[in-house]
Amino acid sequence: MDMVQSNQLEIRHISPEVRKLIKMYADVNNCTQSEMLERMILEWDSQQSQSERPPGDEDE
Questions:
Q1: Cα-atom radius of gyration of the chain, to the nearest Å?
Q2: How far apart are CA 31 and CA 47, in angstroms?
Q3: Cα separation of 8 and 11, whole Å?
Q4: Most buried pick, 7, 8, 14, 58, via CB within 10 A?
Q5: % helix / strand / coil in the chain, to the nearest 5?
Q6: 25: which residues sit within 8 A by CB, 6+ positions away?
Q7: What b-and-e string marks burial along 7-19, b requiring 16 or more CB atoms within 10 Å of the CB?
Q8: 49 by DSSP, 3-state: which?
Q9: DSSP letter (8 states) at residue 15
Q10: Are 35 and 4 in contact (CB under 8 A)?
Q11: How far is residue 4's CA from residue 35's CA, in Å, rounded to a whole number?
Q12: Is the confidence at residue 27, as pLDDT, over 90?
């Protein structure tokens, strides 16, 4: 199962206000709500992994 399919199962756990925002972002970005949620999760994961790296490791 890919991320889009698994996120469709989980989107029902998101508050109605946040779902409304995801829908608005999806409309603006011309994609589905699941695709928008996937993009948000990937961006979140990317930011989290960057913040967990100790300083100075960029040159290694």
A1: 15
A2: 22
A3: 5
A4: 7
A5: 80, 0, 20
A6: 36, 40
A7: beeeeeeeeeeee
A8: helix
A9: -
A10: yes
A11: 6
A12: yes
